[in-house]
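User: I'm curious whether this sequence folds into something compact or stays loose and floppy. Could you predict its structure so I can see for myself?
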Amino acid sequence: MNKKVAWGVLGVANIAVKKVLPAMQRGEWCQIAAIASRDLEKAERAAKELGIAKAYGSYEELLADPEIEAVYNPLPNHLHVPWSIKAAEAGKHVLCEKPISLTVPEAVSLLRTRDRTGVKIEEAFMVRTHPQWVKAIDLVRTGQIGTLRSVMGYFSYFNRDPKNIRNIPEYGGGALMDIGCYLVYTSRLIFGEEPTRVVAHIERDPEMGTDILTSGILHFPSGQSIFTCSTQVAPYQRVQIIGTKGRIEIEIPFNAPIDKPCRIFRDERGDLSGRSAELLEFPVCDQYTIQGDLFSQSIREGSELAVPLEGSIRNMAVIDAIFRSADSGKWEEP
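Assistant: Here's the prediction. I'll summarize afterward.
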């Protein structure tokens, strides 16, 4: 059996063509064997650009290809579950872009499909296996900043294009779904717990209807996480992890660069200027390469996935509660 897993790709989304697929092609375990689009010309153009052997003019044709073992699904949010289910029912393992679904019941239906078909399905939270996050979590777990009490996260960019899928409510657009899901996921990851209740405030675009500025507090048994995400302010991202004896700052937590080392800071001296912080640098790597290789390796070796689907359902439950809280003005339980 070939060590490399044969992958098929549903759609020619920018994130796929520009970031994820080139990264996977550099991996040791991935072969991008086919790409599909509802427009054959677009599929052929992407295939030529990336050196992919096969191009299909429909997703159904790709799923019918017996050589394809795994499918990467970067379709718009509202198509994540329907096409992931179709891929699983065709016997393909599925790596699906986040958010895994639009609602908890949708995510549960995906879990049932996984259990029925026996394939692997994972939400593409590529940050989970980036070395900077692996190290940050290890520092927390080993008590390097004392007892964890607080997490603060920020993630934003500016995009007011009404035709962009991130700005279309019916497609699952908006700040919380697109980038806030990272802040929820990493808060749960850092604490290693589930939040017991959440409270949130949302500001919506008066014309497009999507949430454009969303802030929340997640109450955990061990502490609190506060976050803000926005699609209409200056691009910025940062995560602060604060314990009783020190703090960790992740400089570029989500869009980790592939052309320079990533950096995190650990400070146990409390110098408010930050000059006392210890700098930890990580060699240049691509988190999409790591993600693809680990998923493929899991297929070949039967190892566990880094992001279990059960956890993705819990992540969606928190997101649902955040939306409910913004509407009710009260604390809500996931």
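Summary: The longest helix spans residues 309-328. The chain has nine helices and 14 strands.
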